[in-house]
Amino acid sequence: MRFIIQRDLLIESIQHVMKAISSRVTIPILTGIKIEATQEGIKLTGSDSDISIESFIPKEEYGLEHVEGIEEGSVVVQAKYFPDIIRKLPLKTVELITDDQYKVTIKSGGAEFHLNGQDAVEYPHLPKLHTDNSFELKNDLLKDLIKQTVFAVSTVETRPILTGVNMIIEEEHLDFVATDSHRLASRKIPLNLNNENISFKNVVIPGKSLIELNKIIEDNEETITISVTENQILFQTKNLYFLSRLLDGNYPETSRLIPEQSKTIVHTKTKTLLQAIDRASLLAKENRNNVVKLQTKSNNEIEISSNTPEVGQVNEDVTTESIEGEDLKISFSAKYMIDALKIIEEDHVKIEFTGAMRPFIIRPIDNEHILQLILPVRTY
Amino acid sequence: MRFIIQRDLLIESIQHVMKAISSRVTIPILTGIKIEATQEGIKLTGSDSDISIESFIPKEEYGLEHVEGIEEGSVVVQAKYFPDIIRKLPLKTVELITDDQYKVTIKSGGAEFHLNGQDAVEYPHLPKLHTDNSFELKNDLLKDLIKQTVFAVSTVETRPILTGVNMIIEEEHLDFVATDSHRLASRKIPLNLNNENISFKNVVIPGKSLIELNKIIEDNEETITISVTENQILFQTKNLYFLSRLLDGNYPETSRLIPEQSKTIVHTKTKTLLQAIDRASLLAKENRNNVVKLQTKSNNEIEISSNTPEVGQVNEDVTTESIEGEDLKISFSAKYMIDALKIIEEDHVKIEFTGAMRPFIIRPIDNEHILQLILPVRTY
User: Does residue B87 belong to the interface with chain A, where contact is any CB pair within 8 Å?
Assistant: First the structure.
């Protein structure tokens, strides 16, 4: 194998595949990056078995030559050293050469590295997906769906299925739902399926996969293709191939958790409420639960308060836009409320309560497609 | 105690005194910030016994009113909560009020915090220094002296005196010297003492104190006054008072370590050499010592190389500006060399070697006042 490549493109590709590489894998060769050179270009692969990422650098693109002098071949290099070496090379281009002992020579300017590599034949083959369950999304919309839900997945393994995000396609809508059983985040968008008949309810993507995917895909309007099989999901753009396993098991039916009636409705500015909760939580951190209280008052005011006897107490009156319905006094996790309000880009939110012991709902005003649900905490 | 203060000034003062506050102190009240209000302004104090910092916010300055409604008094607040609270308040001003139970009320907009405080009488008194050993420096020059030496102090406690920087005044020159016995950094500047007769050789300032001081003083041409007693040193600007203990013991005589003759002299570009050493060190990190080799070659070239059999090897030919004297092959710590070259702002350096087993010297060309010395490593 031999080629000369634009260094910045190689660095970008390395950063992408590194998202899948872990030093704690059971198959030793997976601590490496697989490099394959063909006349079409250079392909890098990283995998930890759960997530596999391929990043392709075409020989030519938009009339620019990215790679030259290609002699085909492949090798696996140690991911612990390769990225830093490429990043610190002196010139804008770098030449890679392998010999028949899988020794990799890296040349740029006066610098010459010789790294011990491994035979790429030892590297596991990535499965090729065969499915008709494919649909397309814009990159930026997929990023929104991830950001607005993935923070609510469970981080404990007591119910593994809850560590994933449930992806549902029904009636030409795509819905992402995540819950750790104390709160729930959901985002729904209309989906144009071009008359294809795709529908599924029980696809559960590991939260970790979506977090890594979100780091790699750019925030633009380019198209990403999503393909689903029984146990894997593939996200594919022009030069990127992101494969993740799906979680086994049945995702709980969450729609029945969402209250249909409400007894107290508060309209308020998102940021004002977020900052008041954030301040109140400063003194709530000594408590394991980080609990703050919300109480309706007269003149459209709510009081946010928290009390830790050893440290002190805090209370803040927040003027809302309106309070309708019954008086209310409720306690909840400041962290969950901050998480929920942070991902709402709209300036105004509506909060619907159904009493101090029932879950409550936060939604942006004029956007029914984002829903955040939080279970209150009993305080005595 | 009661006052209303500009919040950004209070935040800045808190950040300064926090540099002296540690959660691991034997005197519990030192985990707090002492706040004192007088008609002149507000003074904050933080201390861990080794370092004490006072930051003063004058009531008025440059015709601006920083503090209003002052009722004199003092209190100690918990440093764990106070900084975050002040930082997250909603308005540009904040009111502080204490009651006779040392309860501190913090008000800004609708937010109101009540924190448990402590009686300031319990807070240790900072010593007042009485000394004629005072001199003045510009802030930016003091920052240079610190940056160019403090990285070379010892980080192990086997010889505690080496964890400090030796400050010497002799013959109208100020000299900072640091060594961990494997390398040495020194910076000398001429000092205008206005005919006062100040001279000392054995003042040793803890490296940690200088690192914290460097974070607080601004990079400008304002004047800082330095006063030295037998066991303490005070750095004082208009609104800041930074007191540190000095280290006990005799600092070793370092001047005899510096070779007076050299056998090989290399002139080269600082950055080119720095980057080549940095690259070579990528593969040297598996070795405990992070050792790289330098070898003179023909055509004014030097070869920088490193070899870790399990990983691979690297070599790079660097074109220098000149090589005079004997051929040379020497091994040394890449980290020490990188540290030394990083603090040299000049574009060109001169390296003077006296054989493979003797310490070598790095100096900027045309600046005899900066000197870096490194002991080589024996390799077989």
Answer: no
Residue ending a domain, among B255, B288, B313, is B255
Q: Cβ separation of B283 and A317 shorter than 8 Å?
A: no
Please, is B313 exposed, middle or buried when counting C-beta atoms within 10 Å of its C-beta (0-12, 13-18, 19+)? middle
| CATH number where A353 lies | 3.70.10.10
Contacts of B283 in chain A (CB under 8 A): 81, 113
Nearest-by-Cβ selection for A275 from B90, B112, B311? B90
Q: Which of A190, A223, A255 is the last residue of a domain?
A: A255
What domain range includes position A94? 2-122
* Statement to judge: residues B112 and B142 lie in one domain: no
CB B276 to CB A84 under 8 A?
no
- State the Cα angle at A251 between A250 and A256, rounded to 5°: 125
In a domain, A93, yes or no: yes
**Quick one: B108 and B160 in the same domain?**
no
Residues 6+ apart with CB under 8 A from B60: B66
| Number of compact structural domains in chain A | 3
Reported ipTM: the value is 0.88
Output the six-digit token pair for B154: 């010892």
Per-residue pLDDT 10s for chain B (380 aa) are 999 999 999 999 999 999 999 988 889 999 999 999 999 999 999 999 999 999 999 999 999 999 999 999 999 999 999 999 999 999 999 999 999 999 999 999 999 999 999 999 999 988 877 777 899 999 999 999 999 999 999 999 899 999 999 999 998 899 999 999 999 999 999 988 776 778 888 999 999 999 999 999 999 999 999 999 989 999 999 999 999 999 999 999 998 889 989 999 999 999 999 999 999 999 887 666 789 999 999 999 999 999 988 889 999 999 999 999 999 999 999 999 999 999 999 999 999 999 999 999 999 998 889 999 999 998 75
Asked, for residue B326, whether it belongs to a domain, the answer is yes
Tell me how far CA of residue B284 lies from CA of A81, B225, B278, B333, in angstroms.
11, 44, 10, 9
DSSP string, A189-207: EE---TT----EEEEEEEH
Residue B320 counted as domain residue: yes
What is the Cα–Cα distance from B156 to B150, expressed in whole angstroms?
14
